[in-house]
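Curious: can you check?
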Amino acid sequence: QAASASVLSACAAAHTAVKARPQPSVISLDEFWKAYEATCKMIAFEVSKFGMALSSPPISDEAVASISSSLSNTVSALGRNTAALGSTHGMTLHTEVQRHAKAVLDSVQAFASAMPAALRGPAGFETVLSAAGGVLGKCDGATSLPRNNMIAVTGGLQPLLLLVTDCLNELETEFQQAGPPDQADDEDEESWTAADRAMLPFGICLLKASVKLLEKTIVTVGECAASTPEQLAALDASFTACEPLSEKCDDLAALLYPPIDSTELEPAVRALQAQDDAILAALVRVRDLCACAAVPWTGALGNAVTHNVTKVLASLTLD
């Protein structure tokens, strides 16, 4: 019980350090990753030692105390290492590392909670060995974390791109399979009316412009060699601006299926436009700070968004 309590106490303190508001740091990324990966490997090593000790019972009190002491110290080091990264190298990167550190600590807590039962006899072996496997898996995840803020931002935006692309493709496929316009039944609530069909291409094009905007953001951020605090903050701002895009696209796409309610559709259109505008503004900031040559299309995409919003809203007025 004392060994388990020691590790759990260290985990709680490390959680507090990990969740603390990040401060500017002087540590280099190379120094950070060297320390962070070494600490994760050490946590995995100490947990593995306990598992190996279980295979040759009985385990002496001294061995248990030694393992728990080393594990507690290493867990504390993980909290310090995570806090040491701070905000200097970008908040998106910090968030990814913070999320990973929390997952490691949670897995160690589960392992420590299972230790007493394992020490009492074979009945607890399966639970603690399963928990040990969880720790090893989480610690191994350190090698796949993004190595800098640019990679963290682009890596975080890729899943969003898949979501908004799927949302667009589903709607477009449904529209294409709905049959020719002359088969439209204005009395059938499950079908698009003639007015819906006249408006829908502009709604789809608005979604396409949003998808293209996200694609271009990923490409542009990926070409930005950000190093100064201002540049890193600009990348973070781009990520923050893009995060709600999937939800906004989903909201609009859902309202473009029949029956279409114009009173609900207009706010969704304006909300997506506002999000696209925020992404464009953040991207212009990246362009200006990072001297990216790949952003001459911001005006064209902004015009595409405005054009399609205008067309959708005009059709609602005529409806």
